């Protein structure tokens, strides 16, 4: 169990709720993943729409923590307004803050992200900023009051994994007290294992599960991957070596020669 913004959470996997073939498959995948935090987009899923919102009813039945996001926002004003609406509709002060700066890569706008973070924190939000792996930006977000930082592994939906391990390791080392969650770019359970083995506190993903031919099975695979990665990190991974080292060192006379008659 670990603490995420004062909430005790069992799973280190956070999962998205978009792109699934049906609400039933989404529900099955979320349950199989073991995730207790689910992201929802205000622009795509509006609760209580004429009392018949199937998606919202499905999410409520899961009993998870909701993490609304500002997906699709391109300005500070738009992101802040969306966050305010999300707080009212979803009854949570958590917000995954996205302010997109580039249509092609969906890379976050670092300047607008920092400005929006400051404004939302002043309004009492717990801001989960989606950002790049830039150390200076992350340090400024922390200075602004962010306790959780969500750097990308790769562009959203690309499935390319952790394309800059050096920068991500540097973030983990330089921000040891900050909750760091890899968000975006995770394509396979192996990428999730890698992130957790590096010491990241969790991973957030959507496409790799929702777009899989078998979302429920893939969700279970990610569930196991995240557990394995964290167990390996806690146990202590041996450092790589340049030379071979025998796993069974020779310490003298073979045991079958001991006591042999002269």
Q: Write down the overall mean pLDDT.
A: 91
N/C terminus separation: 62 Å
CATH superfamily: Aldolase class I
DSSP helical segment count: 9
Here the CATH topology equals TIM Barrel
Share of helix among residues?
25-40%
Radius of gyration computed on alpha carbons: 22 Å
The tally of structural domains comes to 1
Largest sheet: 8 strands, parallel
Strand order of the largest sheet: 5-4-3-10-9-8-7-6
Overall SS class: alpha/beta
The helix/strand order is EEEHEHEHEHEHEHEHEHH
CATH C-level: Alpha Beta
Strand segment tally: 10
Structural notes for this entry:
The chain is an alpha/beta fold. It has a single domain (2-237), classed as TIM Barrel (Alpha-Beta Barrel). Helices cover 39% and strands 16% of the residues. The protein has nine helices and ten strands. The protein has helices spanning 23-33, 54-62, 76-90, 110-122, 135-144, 165-174, 189-197, 207-210, 215-235; strands spanning 2-4, 7-9, 13-16, 37-41, 65-69, 94-97, 126-131, 148-151, 179-183, 202-205. Strands 5-4-3-10-9-8-7-6 form an eight-stranded parallel sheet. A two-stranded antiparallel ribbon has the order 1-2. Strand 7, helix 5 (135-144) and strand 8 (148-151) form a beta-alpha-beta unit. The chain starts with a strand and ends in a 27-residue tail after the last helix. The mean pLDDT is 91.
């Amino acid at each position: 169990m670990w603490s995420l913004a004062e909430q005790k959470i069992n799973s280190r996997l956070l999962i998205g709720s978009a792109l699934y073939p049906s609400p039933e498959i989404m529900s099955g995948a979320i349950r199989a993943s073991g995730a207790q935090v689910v992201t929802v987009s205000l622009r795509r899923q509006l609760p209580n729409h004429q009392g018949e919102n199937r998606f919202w009813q499905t999410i409520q039945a899961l009993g998870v923590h909701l993490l609304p996001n500002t997906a699709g926002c391109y300005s500070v004003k738009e992101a802040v307004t969306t966050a305010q609406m999300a707080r009212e509709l979803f009854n949570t002060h958590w917000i995954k803050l996205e302010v997109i700066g580039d249509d092609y890569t969906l890379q976050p706008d670092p300047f607008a992200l920092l400005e929006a973070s400051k404004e939302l924190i002043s309004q009492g939000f717990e801001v989960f900023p989606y950002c790049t792996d830039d150390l200076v930006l992350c340090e400024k977000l922390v200075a602004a009051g962010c306790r959780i930082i969500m750097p990308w592994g790769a562009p959203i939906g690309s499935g390319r994994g952790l394309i800059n391990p050096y920068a991500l390791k540097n973030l983990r080392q330089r921000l040891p007290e900050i909750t760091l969650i890899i968000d975006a770019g995770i394509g396979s359970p192996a990428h999730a294992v890698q992130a957790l083995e590096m010491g990241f506190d969790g991973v957030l993903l959507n496409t790799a599960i929702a777009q899989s031919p078998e979302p429920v099975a893939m969700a279970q695979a990610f569930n196991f991957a995240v557990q394995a990665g964290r167990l390996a990190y806690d146990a202590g991974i041996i450092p790589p070596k340049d030379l071979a080292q025998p796993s069974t060192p020779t310490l003298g006379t073979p045991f079958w020669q001991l006591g042999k008659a002269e």
